[in-house]
Write a sequence for this structure.
């Protein structure tokens, strides 16, 4: 599960890593190669690959701690889910929830628009 988190961090912040670190992370997280496979492909020791991944994880954690892109994205996604559930439970309030859904990015808006108009609208 922790690798999934670092895969997400790499997707967001990978461009901030040096070329070598970025390549090793890409091979490990995206191509799912083992440390041994990466070491053989790059002509370095397995320990070198492990050290590079450890340093990269530390950098990725630091970027997220400072910039909070994933944390914010997760919070917005959760707010969209809650708003969609609220809109489904209270279709008469669709006019009030649609602008909020639009401001959040639209996931709540899509489910609210899929419902037929209520008689009060």
């Amino acid at each position: 599960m922790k690798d999934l988190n670092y895969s997400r961090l790499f997707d967001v912040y990978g461009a901030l890593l040096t070329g070598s670190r970025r390549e090793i992370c890409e091979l490990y997280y995206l191509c799912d190669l083992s440390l041994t496979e990466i070491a053989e492909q790059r002509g370095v020791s397995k320990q070198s690959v492990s050290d590079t991944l450890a340093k990269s994880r530390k950098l990725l954690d630091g970027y997220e701690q400072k910039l909070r892109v994933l944390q914010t994205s997760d919070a917005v996604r959760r707010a969209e889910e809650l708003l969609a559930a609220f809109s489904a439970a209270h279709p008469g309030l669709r006019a009030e929830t649609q602008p909020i859904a639009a401001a959040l990015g639209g996931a709540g808006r899509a489910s609210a628009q899929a419902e037929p108009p209520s008689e009060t609208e």
Summary: The two ends are 46 Å apart (CA to CA). Residues 27 and 38 are 7 Å apart (CA to CA). The chain has a mean pLDDT of 88. The domain at 2-67 is CATH 1.10.10.10 (Arc Repressor Mutant, subunit A).
